[in-house]
Specification:
The protein is an all-alpha fold. It has a domain of about 80 residues.
Length: about 120
C-alpha cells in the first residue's frame, strides 16, 4: 500500500524534467540559443542594410527633384527616427535586451517604410 502512495508522487516529479527549461527560463537546447542568436544577427544586418538603402534612396530622390518641400522635411524627420532606432537596436543587441531590440527594429522598419513612401513615383 505504501508503494502505491509514492507512485503518483514519483510520476508527477518525473514529468517535471521537460518543464525545467520553461520554468527556469533556460533555453531548451544549445541549438535553440544558436538559432536565436543567428536570427538576431541577421535582423541587425538587415536593419543596417535597410537604413543604408533608405538613406541612399532619399538622397538620390532629393537630388533628382522627386523629394521636395514638405515631403522632404517629413522624410528627413523619418530618417532621423530611423537612425535613432538603428542606434537603439545596436545597443539593445549588445546588451542582449530582447524587448528593446524588437521594439527598435519595429521603429526602424516603420520609419524607413514611411520615408521611402514619400518619394514621388
Amino acid at each position: 500500500m505504501r508503494k502505491l502512495i509514492f507512485l503518483p508522487a514519483l510520476l508527477a516529479l518525473s514529468g517535471c524534467a521537460g518543464l525545467a527549461p520553461l520554468l527556469l527560463g533556460a533555453p531548451a537546447s544549445p541549438a535553440a540559443v544558436a538559432n536565436k542568436t543567428t536570427l538576431d544577427e541577421t535582423a541587425l544586418r538587415l536593419a543596417e542594410t535597410a537604413y543604408a538603402a533608405e538613406r541612399t534612396a532619399i538622397d538620390t530622390a532629393a537630388d533628382a527633384g522627386l523629394l521636395t518641400g514638405q515631403n522632404a522635411a517629413k522624410a528627413a524627420s523619418l530618417d532621423n527616427k530611423a537612425y535613432a532606432a538603428l542606434g537603439l537596436a545596436r545597443r539593445a543587441y549588445s546588451a542582449a535586451n530582447a524587448a528593446d531590440y524588437a521594439d527598435a527594429i519595429s521603429q526602424l522598419r516603420d520609419a524607413v517604410t514611411g520615408a521611402v513612401a514619400l518619394i514621388k513615383k
